[in-house]
Design goal:
Blueprint (H helix, E strand, L loop, with lengths): L14 H32 L14 H25 L8 H25 L8 H4 L6 H22 L8 H24 L11 H25 L6 H38 L6 H7 L4 H20 L4 H23 L1 H4 L6 H4 L13 H31 L5
Helix pairs in contact: 1-14, 2-3, 2-6, 2-7, 2-11, 3-5, 3-7, 3-14, 5-6, 6-7, 7-8, 7-11, 8-11, 10-11
Length: 398
């Protein structure tokens, strides 16, 4: 979907090319929504029977997409807020700030959908808000996300006011909470002391680095699709500087992530006398295609090559592949941490399809994932339209 088509976008597309992409994206979104609605219907008709997870591996694709969306939400808001406060190129205008806020919220809502559908009793989702136990990391995160939504909504509304003393202080608060999003996601795993694969202080840093990369990649993609604001050479030059800044942010964040990831797995694998079945399963076992092909090759090497070129169109493709790669990276953390039994002999004690230490997403899970993507894309589209409509009514720059 494209919310605006200029005569020539910052990625070198003329009006005809942009119109063709608009039709393709609309058709793709309709297909995603139709497939997603079918998946949701299957989920409510058959419950969890068609899912690939079970009692020993209870978290699957939807939780992986949840952590991915949380990271993009936090990263987009941090980049938008900090860029606006520091008046960085391509971030100093309130229209650019509003775009970052809309992307952040559009990523966060599908994350809630994924968690809700993963629950056995979806309607019990609100119990964590009505009767929370704040010593629980889940309760803490749920309340933090909802408070952030309020802060983000207020910041979005204040961005339409010509003079507001509260905007920047609230942006600082929102940015602080956004940094907590991915960090707390890492702590969520680190707190499981009985799981050696997850119990590592590096996870929170990994999740934070990936959030910055996801936020930058998301903003790069969105700006590729909607094009720059109308203006002369000065506006086009500012757009080019902002795209280059986002490109650098994504490159640096990916490199930082890989440095820490190498430290994590190299220490676990090469420590004298140490043996980690989770790491062996990830690097050389059943999950090696997800790690080496989807995450490292498609999500790291190819995006870095594309982002290092001079073609802005290839930057957009690289940003998209980086998002796909980090989706795989979330699964490389989530699944291997569940495949090694904590009680020796337990798997052999009881035999059932739901009592096994392996997991592969099913068609129903992928279809629901399509629904999450379709909802997030629709929210982003509506948000961009509202940004333009309300800005025009207020007599502001769109």
């Amino acid at each position: 979907m494209t919310a605006h088509v200029s005569a020539k976008s910052g990625f070198g597309w003329d009006t005809g090319a942009a119109a063709s992409w608009s039709v393709i994206l609309w058709l793709l979104w309709i297909a995603l929504l139709a497939a997603g609605l079918y998946g949701v219907a299957l989920r409510f008709t058959y419950g969890h029977q068609l899912a690939g997870y079970g009692s020993y591996v209870p978290w699957g694709l939807w939780i992986g997409l949840y952590f991915l969306a949380i990271g993009m939400s936090g990263g987009a808001f941090v980049l938008g807020a900090v860029g606006y406060i520091l008046d960085l190129p391509g971030f100093g205008k309130r229209s650019e700030l509003r775009l970052a806020i809309v992307l952040s919220v559009a990523a966060l809502i599908p994350a809630f959908i994924g968690v809700a559908l993963d629950l056995g009793h979806t309607w019990r989702l609100f119990s964590i808000l009505t009767s929370p136990t704040f010593t629980s990391m889940m309760a803490f995160n749920a309340w933090m996300y909802n408070i952030f939504l309020v802060v983000a909504a207020v910041c979005w509304l204040l961005s339409f006011a010509r003079d507001s003393l509260w905007l920047k202080p609230l942006l600082v608060l929102g940015a602080f909470m956004s940094v907590l999003f991915p960090s707390q996601s890492g702590v969520f795993f680190e707190a499981v002391r009985t799981n050696d694969f997850w119990h590592s202080p590096i996870l929170s840093v990994l999740f934070l680095a990936s959030a910055i990369a996801l936020g930058g990649a998301g903003l790069l993609l969105v700006r590729a699709l909607i094009g720059p604001e109308r203006g002369g050479e000065e506006v086009e030059a500012e757009t080019a500087r902002s795209l280059n800044l986002l490109r650098i942010v994504v490159i640096v964040a990916i490199v930082v992530y890989e440095v820490f990831e190498f430290a994590e797995y190299s220490i676990a694998f090469w420590s004298p006398g140490a043996h980690s079945p989770n790491v062996v399963f990830l690097l050389f076992g059943d999950y090696w295609p997800v790690f080496w092909l989807l995450h490292i090759l498609l999500g790291v090497i190819v995006p870095l090559v594309l982002l290092l070129t001079a073609s802005k169109g290839l930057w957009a493709l690289g940003a998209f592949l980086a998002v796909v790669g980090f989706a795989a990276a979330r699964m490389t953390v989530l699944v291997p941490g569940q495949i090694a039994g904590q009680i020796p002999g337990l798997q052999a004690a009881f035999q059932d399809v739901r009592l096994a230490y392996h997991y592969s997403p099913t068609a129903m899970e992928y279809l629901v994932g399509c629904f999450m993507v379709a909802v997030g894309t629709a929210l982003l589209y509506v948000g961009i339209k509202l940004n333009r409509l309300l800005a025009q009514r207020a007599g502001l720059s769109v």
